[in-house]
Amino acid sequence: MTKEAIRKQSAAYRRGLTDAAYQQLSAAICTRVAEHDAFRQARTVHIYWPMLRRREVDTRRLTQAAWTAGKRVVVPVVERFERSVTDAPRLRHIAITPGTPLVPNRWGIPEPQAGPTVPLATLDLVVVPGLAFDRAGYRVGHGFGYYDEFLATLSAHTLGICYAACLHDAVPHHPHDIAVASVVTEQETI
Q: How far is CA 70 from CA 63, 101, 121, in A?
């Protein structure tokens, strides 16, 4: 399958989830992540804030678990929406605490509006979204390259999360695509 076909198939699967199934699957995935050694040992965890209307795995429960465990939680913020000729990162990374106001950006992704940028070297674990993953850790995202740029700069453990129905034996990948170290679904940890 092509990346575009995988994107369409995964998006259709997400749209078909009932509210109850969505919450149940997200809870199971978050529980598995919270039980992962990389999460338990991490002091600073980078977790994306979910786009609920797109049925992205709901990470809010995982964020709460991190705060409860005394971990610092960092979220991505889109700095630039367009690609440019510079090598400047398009994402910034800001720590949030319970009650930090989040405002949807132009794509509808909730983000904090202010805060100092967290140095990437301080991240212990990065939870990576994807429409689909494969068993080698390669992902199919929305095709904008934000996470590939980000992942290429990290020394932290990277953990991709997706629904079991969106896990493939292999997905197409290019030399610039970066595989994650672990993949977690509601059914298994790879």
A: 11, 20, 19
